[in-house]
């Protein structure tokens, strides 16, 4: 049986960042994914926003890894010429009650170490974005956008330069710890079953993390958090983009999403979304009947929207730990301290801001490995 020092299951932004980080300490790292290409699931179905770290409760992994990850990500993009731009974002309040909610958000951001937010009144807001309707706004200058595909490609290249191997079309099936290593079973592209021995096992399988955890011998079932699928749809806009910044409403109260916002890619192509819809099965359908809800949400801040230029786009699915109606849940990184098994790290619930946080999450996983 082949023997390696670590297997990372899942080649999304987080798994790739982990492979890159741990390959600075471990020699043979293998990253496997069930798809032939890296980043084929949630990491390529999102808003590509570098979040500032405004929304998440203080002292949570989400808050800490988002703020730390944002700084690491800007530095990384700068250093390796990954297309990105600190375009800035406006969170718009439409009435005094929403200004109150923005004030709470501002305090939250300050506690998280986001100290650069600026208040704009209606007149200043018009100067920033003449086409926008709004009573007041919070401006976040450190929110940005990036080319997530080039980011993931760069992570993979750096990991490969350190000896990591990426094996696509390879599905994790089962693992058990035997004597001093994990015996990991996987399905090869031709359907045959392979086995590999590995000192470390990292479960970074995103929407598949819980299913993988269920196939690891010795895990206490109650330590596998239930997974809730929450789909977010996007609509693209084929007309002229009037916005210089990202435009967000005040976030939804239950925090299932940040509200239907206006984002744009680095070419300036405008898109709106994501909304939030809990679903039972992995299904990326975007029902064009949702258009009416999108029009209502967008017209609140942009009355001049040309409805005919709004088209059903794509969707992404959040791997939530938050049941419908429940309060928001934090990211989980589990190591032997929690589950009692040696040399196993598992990540659960890596929804937004997981792309922003990816380098910081990888740093934490690396620290767990390096401290052994
Ligand atoms: C609608 C939406 C919008 C978002 N917007 C943003 C944003 O603007 N900014 C931000 O910071 N974050 C955003 N996020 C969150 C971000 O996209 C995710 O947190 C991040 O991409 C998660 O990366 P990951 O590597 O954990 O998961 P994934 O990208 O899902 O990768 C997991 C990989 O594991 C593989 N896998 C699963 N099971 C197996 C198995 N049994 N064997 C082998 N491989 C397996 C999958 O094929 C997949 O490639 C958004 C998410 C959604 C859904």
Automatic annotation (TrEMBL):
A molecular function (GO) term: (S)-2-hydroxyglutarate dehydrogenase activity
Q: Which Pfam families match?
A: DAO (PF01266)
Instruction: Recite the UniProt keywords alphabetically.
Output: FAD, Flavoprotein, Oxidoreductase
| Domain of life where this protein originates | Bacteria
Query: Where is each FAD dependent oxidoreductase domain found?
Result: 6-365
- Give the protein's cofactors: FAD
The answer to keyword Oxidoreductase applying to this record is yes
Membership in a protein family? Belongs to the L2HGDH family.
What this protein is called in its record is FAD dependent oxidoreductase domain-containing protein
Species name: Bermanella marisrubri
Instruction: Show the taxonomic lineage.
Output: Bacteria, Pseudomonadati, Pseudomonadota, Gammaproteobacteria, Oceanospirillales
């Amino acid at each position: 049986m082949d023997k390696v020092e670590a297997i990372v299951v899942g080649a999304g932004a987080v798994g790739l960042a982990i492979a890159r980080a741990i390959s600075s300490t471990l020699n043979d790292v293998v990253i496997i994914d069930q798809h032939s290409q890296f980043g084929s699931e949630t990491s390529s179905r999102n808003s590509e926003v570098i979040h500032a770290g405004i929304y998440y409760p203080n002292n949570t992994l989400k808050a800490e890894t988002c703020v730390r990850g944002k700084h690491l990500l800007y530095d990384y993009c700068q250093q390796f010429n990954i297309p990105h731009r600190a375009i800035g974002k406006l969170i718009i309040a439409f009435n005094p009650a929403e200004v109150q909610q923005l004030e709470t958000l501002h305090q939250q951001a300050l506690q998280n170490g986001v100290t650069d937010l600026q208040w704009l009144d209606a007149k200043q807001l018009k100067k920033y974005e003449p086409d926008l309707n709004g009573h007041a706004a919070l401006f976040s200058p450190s929110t940005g956008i990036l080319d997530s595909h080039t980011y993931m490609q760069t992570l993979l290249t750096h990991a490969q330069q350190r000896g990591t191997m990426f094996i696509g079309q390879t599905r994790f099936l089962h693992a058990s710890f035997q004597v001093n290593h994990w015996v990991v079973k996987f399905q090869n592209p031709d359907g045959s079953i392979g086995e590999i021995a590995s000192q470390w096992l990292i479960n970074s399988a995103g929407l598949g993390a819980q299913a993988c955890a269920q196939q690891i011998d010795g895990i206490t079932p109650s330590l596998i958090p239930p997974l809730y699928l929450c789909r977010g749809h996007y609509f693209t806009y084929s007309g002229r983009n009037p916005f210089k910044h990202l435009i967000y409403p005040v976030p939804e109260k239950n925090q299932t999403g940040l509200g239907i916002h206006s984002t744009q890619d680095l070419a300036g192509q405008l898109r709106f979304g994501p909304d939030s819809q809990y679903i039972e099965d992995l299904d990326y359908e975007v029902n064009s009947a949702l258009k009416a809800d999108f029009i209502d949400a967008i017209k609140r801040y942009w009355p001049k929207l040309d409805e005919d230029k709004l088209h059903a786009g794509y969707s992404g699915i959040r791997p939530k730990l938050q049941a419908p109606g429940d309060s928001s849940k934090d990211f989980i990184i589990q190591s032997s301290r929690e589950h009692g098994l040696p040399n196993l790290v598992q990540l659960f619930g890596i929804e937004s801001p997981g792309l922003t946080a990816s380098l910081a999450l990888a740093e934490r996983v690396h620290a767990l490995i390096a401290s052994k």
